[in-house]
Amino acid sequence: MTVIAILQARLSSTRLPGKVLKNIVGKPMLQHQIERTQHANFVDKIIVATSDQTEDDAIELLCDKLNVACFRGGLNDVLDRYYHAANQFNAEHIVRLTGDCPLTDPKIIDEVITLHLKQNSDYTSNCNIPSLPDGLDVEVFTKDALNKSWKQAKKPSEREHVTQFIRNHGEIFKVINYQYPQDLSEHRWTVDEASDFEFVTQIYQNLYPTKTLFTTQDILSLLEKQPELKKINSGYMRNEGLAKSLINDKEQGYE
């Protein structure tokens, strides 16, 4: 059984261009996320899936430097990118991560994988009903579920957002949700805006020098001591990108 984490990343973000290679305490943001994911015990291999656009050459160069596999595919059909990456590396189970989440928690990645395998589900996530901060999202799905999605997904939102077809078709797939003991869903730890990047930078500057693999609980303890940090990037809607894609679906005649 092979569990492969596919971490999607590109430099052409509309809200914060180049964000995945922005520097945080001396390293590109994407490098921090890769290094944290490497501590997940049940991930056999990490692949960075980026686009075939020239501007994303820098992502491939970073992967070469870090000795991490890099797969390149279409810019907008991310589902197609995942499908071909999973085939190339013979994945049986795929962990989907996005390159704008440098606070990702390897322990939570392992817990979602464990639940997925124990329940023999097609798709397991901690964000279908979120209980964790935006930015700790983990989705795990089988190669068979990915194959079905790739063949059947038609809506633009289902091609851009890899697991949207699965989540739209609970009648086809066995879908399981991971629930964290605390409800931390109000927190925003992802990087979409300049203020998000400032927030994450502050977290790293406070914690990384003394504990490179700081935990979710370490972040929460810091926020209790310095509650003003939460105000840096408050007020944004969760999953704004998906919401825009769903509007685009309707504009193109999809229901």
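(ticket continues) Second input and output from the same batch:
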Amino acid sequence: MNAILELDSATTQGNTEEPFQRYYAEAGPDYAAWSPNYNMHFGFFRRGMNPFSREAMLEQMNVEVLDRLRLDPAARTRVLDMGCGLGASLRSFAARLPFADLYGITLVPWQLEQGRSLNERCSEAKSITLLPGDYERTGLPGESFDAVYAIESSCYGAGSGKSAFLREAHRLLRPGGRIGVADGFVGRGSWRGPQKAICKKLTECWVIETLGDIEEFKSELLRVGFRDIVVEAAQWRVAPSFLHVPWVTLKFLCTAVWGRRRMTRARWNNVLAPILLPLISQPVGPVGYYIVSALRN
């Protein structure tokens, strides 16, 4: 067996988060209403794109993150998705990196099972391996990847600086390897009125301990050994896809009621969180969307 697959069983089984797993087991299938391909993130809009084509913008976010990893498509590289969901970004990467070995790690058994099933139906996904585990302590060999990335999964790491997540990313990367992160962070600006309470409720809905702070995140990147750090504010690039949320939510609720589907607390939380997000996001609040990339020393 390839050494990269030899995880420490205590690591992959002993540090799971039951609320997090339960949330995605119950609400995870609902993401099909957002993206048939299970791109479980916001999209990236570029000039000339159709703002009504949500899936195209979601796919463009995959492209943007991949571009920042600066991988040679003709090279034999190894890439890790730290919080892979159902592997949609990996399937996107597979079409663009034909010689790469692609890995994803997730804590959620349902995501692992469904992601593997989706990969079996995709001819380009033969290079993808999905693994169970905690991205803060993967049990994978050190210096074994050319690139690691996280699209809207770093927010689930502990602390506002996401220190454990970044330490593990640094450990896993070979010298000269790159990290790419696309996610929501608390940025510049002040909390107003009830916004801190709204943010707390939002993080509870999405089972997030705390949102990352972009300045702390940047400082932590430097501290653990990254350099050439680039922080890009992408709030307005993400906004066109975010405007799809009300329509998708309404359509989902109508479908759920019509189909008499049971709305669990996790599913209601998945509906509520996107409604709360604009109330604390730039320009009315300090929460913004950022793409961060850096080089490992």
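Agent notes: Residues 3-296 form a domain with the Rossmann fold fold (CATH 3.40.50.150). The first strand starts at residue 78 and ends at 82. Closing as not reproducible unless the customer responds.
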